[in-house]
Amino acid sequence: MTIKTTVIGAYPKIGEGLDGQELRRALHRHDRGEISTADLDKVFDDTTRSAIGEIESAGIDVTNDAQIRWDDLLSPFARAWSGVDPGPLERFYDNNTYFRQPVIDGPIQTDGRSLVRDYTFARGVAKSTLKAAIPGPLTFATLVARDEQYRSLEDRVLAVADATAKEIAGLKAAGATMIDIEDPAVVASPKHIELAREAYGRFADPDLALTLVTYFFPADAVLESLASFPVAAVGIDVRSRDTTAFDRLDAFRTHYVLVGVVDARNTRLETADEVARYAERALKLVPQERLVLATTTSLEYLPRDVARAKLTALVEGARLVSGEKVLA
């Protein structure tokens, strides 16, 4: 049995050659009023179709919609939720990329359909297993620039969790069975781990494969605590920083474990042998049927050709562990 593979977060929006630049040109033309929003939406769809095709061509078992329409992790919801607006630009953790910090000026409300259209489109395109993704409540709440509604971080986190529950229900109604909760703040701010666990209790669903995805920072301070979250799987980044996680993965007795073994923020290309060695370390403590190999985070930090090559290495490494023949 081959170890399963998946992607995390966004795929590079811009590729090589003229065709790969189409989305950039369309965005500029839309800003100048030269094309309509409907025309831009078509380019978004075409780029999404192309990105999913590239992910699947590499042999990835579980894809997402590549998050082509997402300006950053929080923007789809800062735009869609009542009581929230996109605010000032701020550096996204320790990356050389920026995001719009949410500004809260009223009660957070949503109809739960913020991503339904995009998920439905991707479902019609993907040939492999498709998963959805949303930001985690602790990450959203701790990255807010200004909050004029909630009196404390706890109130804000739980309000975001309630909105997240509605988004999860909307995706479930649209056919989603797997959803990533991208929540790097859980490991970036370990002092809030108990608050995060309470928030996850508000949208736990035993009928859904929810994955708590952490990245950028080691999970060392909270790893055993993560094993008690009401999710089906936990994602651990073992490449971005030194970590003791490999020696403690047996904390996850029943969870699936997504191990981020391909560094999505470094252009250096891993070999299949390297990926296989990471997998073999994890397999000392995690049964093969519960291990999933993944990128550490979004591949959008890389040129598209490098992203493709890294996915190929990820898949070939998984096959090496299983004794399958890898094409030279």
Characterization of the model:
Helix content is 38%, strand content 19%. It is an alpha/beta fold and 328 residues long. It has one domain: TIM Barrel (Alpha-Beta Barrel). Helix 10 links the parallel strand 9 (209-213) and strand 10. Helix 2 (22-31) runs antiparallel to helix 3 (37-57), helix 7 packs parallel to helix 9 and helix 11 crosses helix 12 (304-321). The radius of gyration is 19 Å and the shape is globular.
What is the beta-strand fraction?
Answer: 15-25%
Low-confidence stretches: none
Helix segment count? 12
Largest sheet: 7 strands, parallel
Order of helix and strand elements from N to C terminus: EHHHEHEEHEEHEHEHHEHEEHEH
CATH topology: TIM Barrel
Rg (CA only):
19 Å
Helical content band: 25-40%
- What is the count of β-strands? 12
Total tally of structural domains = 1
> How does the overall form come out from the CA principal axes?
globular
Oligomer type? single chain
